[in-house]
Design a protein that fits this description.
With 223 residues, this protein is an all-alpha fold. 76% of the residues lie in helices and 0% in strands.
Amino acid sequence: MGLLKQGSKGKPVERLQTDLNRLGAKPKLKVDGIFGPLTKAAVQAFQKKAKMKPDGAVGGLTEAAILMGGPLPEMTATDGRILQKAAKAEQKNNAAYVNLMDKIMVEGIMLRQAVEGHRELGKKAVEKNKGYWVALFDVLTKLTKKQAQFDSLLLIAPKTAAKLVPQCEQLEREAEALVAQMMSAYKDISKDIDDVVSEVSSRSKTITDHAGKLNKLVSHPLK
């Protein structure tokens, strides 16, 4: 009906006065189509009853409240648009969650494969060195015995003891050669270990990054 206020006239005011009388206006209004002080007071009284601002003017909200016969209903359910937005975000998060889990699983599998491959190389290198260890202990045993003989002969047969010196030197050279061969093999292992450490570090960082994103996703699903 448009905005009605004090000074308005016509059929819309008559309908307003009729409605206010129906709703219990006191004093009862004369339905004359003139929006005077009594009509304004009746409007204000109704607005207070309807928990609205009692400005005495009849706009859309006041008109709807008159149709309602009292306070307008309030929507207490959460805005569906907000829920829809949240649902879409959660749907997106679910896909991101699965994607991150897949990435972590793939990194874990590749990390395990890498470590297993390096482990096999390391085992081969250790197996290869077993023979060197046996030979080294054999040479060192001989060297120890020769040196013990040297010590026992030094004071009673120094010439015989002197003959043992080059023999011991030869055994020492043999031991050094074996150690050099072993160190060469261990050098290969050392490089392999460096590769393992590098790969573990790189993939662990990637897994940690994915896990951090996953944790943020679970902790703040709508961000």
